[in-house]
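Convert to structure. Protein one:
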Amino acid sequence: MRTDHKLWGMGENGLILAGVLISVIFWLLEASNHVIFFADSDMFEALFAPTWHELWMRLTVVVAFMAFAFIASRIVKARRRAEDAANRALTEVDQVFETAADGMRIVDREFRVLRANETFANLVGLPKSKIIGRRCHEVFWGDRCDTTGCPLTRVLNGDLDVEYDADKVRPDGTSVPCIVSATPFRQPDGTIVGIVEDFKDISERKRAERDQQESGERLRELTAHLQSIREEERSRIAREIHDELGQVLTALSLDVRWLHKRLPAEQGELQEKTRSMGELITTTVNSVSRICSELRPAILDDVGLSAAIEWQAGEFTSRTGIACNIQTEPPEIKLSEELSVAIFRIFQETLTNIVRHAQASEVDVHLRLTPRDFFMRVSDDGVGMEATGAQKMDSFGLLGVKERVRGFGGELALCTGDKGGACLDIVIPTPAIAAGNKEAPALAGHAA
């Protein structure tokens, strides 16, 4: 574009000087013609004192020359300004294209690479000289390249913008996860002559997601391990309390009764003291039994989950006065020890939340075991989830419940129950139920 300026001489100022020079030359030639061909005046008179008719003709031509030179100079100046603006725009576009953080390439309608920036060359692992002119799927390809579902074909067929995730393959065989955006490359008249592709390398993001997922899995495994250790420790403590402290208290109760029976009738004060001691020991035995049950209900190990849930519901009703209705399908549900403990602890946590936040008068519990999954629903007639912030999924109690459920590959959902209160649904798939389950054969028979 700069060579066009040379065709115009010195630009706008040169055109004006050229106009002046041509006017002077024309004046000299016209004066010489009168002297040579008409001989009606000398050279001085022809130059500086022409006739009115001759003067008018010369001035008309000179003014025309000068006007042309002025207009041409303005045109050249405007054109140069436009060319400079276009060059600046092209330079800016080139700079943006070449320095873009994303890999970019432009392909024609035959999918041959017309241009590629340095980021794309580094992403592909090839110099630009080995990229330009080759078909796009020969340089950096994915599973949909050169097929009927090719995104570039969609752009050529009229889609304004196509964005998709894909694992692109380099010529050396390594895979690069990318977010690819393809847009039409148009001429000024709107005709699509090619496609502009933008490649965002998301390898780091994918790696971070994998690391986060692995970290989450390790945390869940650690949580499950800690919960298992805690349950084992609870069982051990419950056994020790029951076996050692319970036996001692029982023996002490028998000794106090023996002593009470052998006191003389006239020792009324001592008899009353031994009687109160016996009552205190009995109360202590009941407290020990209650503590052992809370640490590890023996009924959970002896007769299964259904009976343990019913026992816990009865304890809950007697302690709080809130009615608790239990429905189980089938009547007796037995799961693996680990899963039974998890469901029982989830049920305990749910009842605790109901007491703290729900302001309920009735709780409905539905347990169902099918060949496909185990389902538990606990709902109440309280104020509901919207009335209190305590039943959000990010509260600590529900986070623990959620982690327990996820540890078995299950799902947890909070919703509004039929009676207007909160409702908690838990679904555990059958593979998690049968894993390590001594009752798995019975479950398989039930499935049949």
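Protein two, convert as well:
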Amino acid sequence: MNFFGKLFKNKKNKSAAEYAIDGEFLCSKGQCVKAVKEFDKAIALEPKNDMFYASRSKAYKNLEKYQEALSDIEKALELQPEVSLYRKLKRQILVFID
């Protein structure tokens, strides 16, 4: 294991951003169930971070858990209503629900 691997492995308390980065990586590898757990941890640390809800929403969408995806993207929009990407994701999710 390299120096950075050891450094991060031994770190006991990750930041919310680190959990979110791990979630993004896992989701990009198709491991969305694990990604959701990482986003859960990020949200627990920073419950007002809209990006974490949007990222978890995408993971839920990939898992075909559309109600959960909708709930999360609506929370992201509640926190940051001007983000057009969130509105687009909401429309994509609604296609599967309607």
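The chain has one domain: 13-97. The chain has a mean pLDDT of 92.
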